[in-house]
Amino acid sequence: xxxxxxxxxxxxxxxxxxxxxxxxxxxxxxxxxxxxxxxxxxxxxxxxxxxxxxxxxxxxxxxxxxxxxxxxxxxxxxxxxxxxxxxxxxxxxxxxxxxxxxxxxxxxxxxxxxxxxxxxxxxxxxxxxxxxxxxxxxxxxxxxxxxxxxxxxxxxxxxxxxxxxxxxxxxxxxxxxxxxxxxxxxxxxxxxxxxxxxxxxxxxxxx
Amino acid sequence: xxxxxxxxxxxxxxxxxxxxxxxxxxxxxxxxxxxxxxxxxxxxxxxxxxxxxxxxxxxxxxxxxxxxxxxxxxxxxxxxxxxxxxxxxxxxxxxxxxxxxxxxxxxxxxxxxxxxxxxxxxxxxxxxxxxxxxxxxxxxxxxxxxxxxxxxxxxxxxxxxxxxxxxxxxxxxxxxxxxxxxxxxxxxxxxxxxxxxxxxxxxxxxxxxxxxxxxxxxxxxxxxxxxxxxxxxxxxxxxxxxxxxxxxxxxxxxxxxxxxxxxxxxxxxxxxxxxxxxxxxxxxxxxxxxxxxxxxxxxxxxxxxxxxxxxxxxxxxxxxxxxxxxxxxxxxxxxxxxxxxxxxxxxxxxxxxxxxxxxxxxxxxxxxxxxxxxxxxxxxxxxxxxxxxxxxxxxxxxxxxxxxxxxxxxxxxxxxxxxxxxxxxxxxxxxxxxxxxxxxxxxxxxxxxxxxxxxxxxxxxxxxxxxxxxxxxxxxxxxxxxxxxxxxxxxxxxxxxxxxxxxxxxxxxxxxxxxxxxxxxxxxxxxxxxxxxxxxxxxxxxxxxxxxxxxxxxxxxxxxxxxxxxxxxxxxxxxxxxxxxxxxxxxxxxxxxxxxxxxxxxxxxxxxxxxxxxxxxxxxxxxxxxxxxxxxxxxxxxxxxxxxxxxxxxxxxxxxxxxxxxxxxxxxxxxxxxxxxxxxxxxxxxxxxxxxxxxxxxxxxxxxxxxxxxxxxxxxxxxxxxxxxxxxxxxxxxxxxxxxxxxxxxxxxxxxxxxxxxxxxxxxxxxxxxxxxxxxxxxxxxxxxxxxxxxxxxxxxxxxxxxxxxxxxxx
Lengths: 207, 811
Hints:
The structure holds two protein chains of two kinds.
Chain A: E1 2-7, H1 19-29, H2 51-54, E2 55-60, E3 63-68, H3 75-82, E4 101-104, E5 107-110, E6 123-125, H4 139-146, H5 156-169, H6 175-181, H7 192-202
Parallel strand pairs in A: 2-6
Antiparallel strand pairs in A: 2-3, 4-5, 4-6
Chain B: H1 14-19, E1 34-40, E2 46-52, H2 54-57, E3 62-67, E4 86-87, E5 93-99, H3 102-110, E6 113-118, H4 125-129, E7 142-145, E8 159-162, H5 168-175, E9 187-191, H6 194-200, E10 203-211, E11 224-229, E12 232-236, H7 246-253, E13 260-263, H8 281-291, E14 295-297, H9 301-307, E15 313-322, E16 328-340, H10 347-358, E17 362-371, H11 385-402, H12 407-414, E18 421-422, E19 427-428, H13 434-445, H14 447-452, E20 456-457, E21 460-472, E22 479-484, E23 490-493, H15 503-514, E24 522-525, H16 544-571, E25 578-581, E26 584-587, E27 594-596, H17 597-607, H18 622-631, E28 636-641, E29 651-663, E30 669-679, H19 686-706, E31 711-712, E32 717-718, H20 723-726, E33 739-742, H21 760-776, E34 784-785, H22 789-796
Parallel strand pairs in B: 1-14, 10-34, 12-13, 16-17, 23-24, 30-33
Antiparallel strand pairs in B: 1-5, 2-4, 2-6, 3-5, 7-8, 9-17, 10-15, 11-12, 11-14, 15-16, 18-19, 20-21, 21-29, 22-23, 22-28, 25-26, 26-27, 29-30, 31-32
């Protein structure tokens, strides 16, 4: 948006506000963006890239998926909007909440902050790829059900991914180790203890 | 004997949450769907002089622009979906652009030109009350209600904006922490004689306080997707509630109730900000109609901060008189609320908390809510009650100390019981067993043992605290609807929303209990209006467990009556000769004579009339009537309005006990122990009770220690729109071994014995933590919520600058 402002004539507590000071304030607070952080950071549909350059093959949940990907497209967007894998949630789209966590070569990543082009040749596991091929839920998923861990559930896919990654690298974590490992996943409902008990249960430490 | 109530079960939507298969509003797509994005105000206050969308509309892929001109006008003080002439906060939506991709919609917004005229703005309510101070709206600065306030989350109706200024002396007084004598208020009530009460007091405490508003930050930013088919609007919304949306949203779309299908399988949090249909929903539904295409309007995290509502802040002053025997004899309370751009405050609810915590013999409350050019404010988990709990707890400790009384004993002496009252009108309650909760909590926490331990350990100091959280916890008069189908299963139709509390499922257990149905023979029908859902309360105000165990119970009773009547008609005798059990209705004298539920359902369909829903009671809501009409002829229909007699407010009360260890070199502390005991009647679903108690406990830490709005007073800009800047508690901020329990004494006015607890869980935690912080610092009162680490370290260093300024939006 382009905008111009004019000041009304009335006296005010802000009457000393100059344009320069206003701009400084804008920069300081970082809050003047009028549209916020969209799905794309600065994508341009008319970028002139050929279809060939955009058509990539991504390895998602063990399957090779050819997909048309824009240069600035995030993995979260590709998963949700191109591949219809809506289990990955976008809570903030700026690397703050962890709802979009997926595993890339086994390491948990915020998929809202990873470009799809950068995961070519890597193994991506999303929430849809956690359960076994026969539909059996992963031990973490079973434990989260047993602990009634999700409340609203919007952060849950991300919590599952972080817990799976943790148990892959540390099969019997303490509660404190689990809290540290999962601290990149916000739960606004505050179900932290239930998720941690789920991790302990999944690792056989809770009867 | 209870078979379902008080037992654990797995709510049917939990597996879908751990697999990611459950759908939220933004997970739905539709052929031809276009994406809408918002253009929002860059200014805290201004007038839109002109909007030029021509360049945007010429872009390939842009399908339309939607402005306030496309919606019915909203007169102030209504919160319009889109600003028309005036913008009153940074981030206020001005228009929406739809395009074939979100990216094009975003780019189109960059091409729109708007000329604004800047207006004076104000972010501090006291500043606005000062002579010559700015007003947030052209019409004035104070919301004055001309009609009684609706339930929490309800839109403001019957109100006007006035310009109110206080004399400079009153401004100076409140800024220096004194009673603002001469200040004008818009809400006042009193009972008893406070002067006589203070005269009776052995000790008087007088304190100023400030609590700062903060955003809900539900993890799912509110998304809507709407499409129209054959004159019906199908609306995928993000809401705490289900049926509570229909009437209001149908009005926003100007359609009949029967022409709206509201769909909400799951919602990513609400916490009070998504109770009913919010103004923003009007854009999605109407834009879709104008374009004749499905429209998805998804907003950003930052926009969720702007329009997702926030807790109101307050600046206040309180005077508490305590008698020698520990009884609170008088309270005088003043609250100036920061109403943000919507003006509503929660001061009255704050005062209500004081009445429950103290049951004062005499009390006066005076309040005023002032508009500021900050985000809209609305209900947020225990609005008023919980922030008051946080600042009142340390004052309560000070009052107890003044008469040499133990802090738990002081609360036990004063708190609400079954014969007590709540609020300024001193209304009755259904039952209350808070003393029992205090006794239980004291035992589980080990209060006496912890008091006896040494406080200091090098640079570390321990503090222990106790607090009370309260909220009204139930409503009456909604409808229940169940159906026994020819397959013999019980279908429980619930208009309760799925906000993550699982109360939709817990309340359905009441119908299963009454009809003696095994849970695996029950199906919950919910999530979309065309599942034939009855009129239900909004899922706010901690009400659902009380309200809808009752509605499901009365619907089940209606079904039982019909089962017996059908059996008597077929098998002889009168209905009274029959009873139910094992999915059958049978003669009490000879259990071999009876009908299975499946047979009875078949007979109900043959008999028609009231038995299968062709007829229904005339006191049920129009929405329930539509639901019954939709089900008519498909089985045995149980439908009833909750007319269970009784009076009084069902209270939800939690007591919290907290132990912290504070490092006096850094001001940081760790929560070593948190114990919370509920007085919420019978616990309906134990596992879910644990979730609510612990989740609310986490919220209490946010309120007491971490979360707040920060506005730059020079430019009126919010400085913490994101999650990390707002600091909702993380795994690393909370106690990981919380102990929770319940008194578990049934409420006499609920057939299952239950009352709600959603909101007081937070208040108890916030109060107990604030009390523990004060205890660690030898009784120092910050009188702030939150009390942040920098405030603590500044206090320890002898600095007062981070706490002395009583501002709701600090910088």
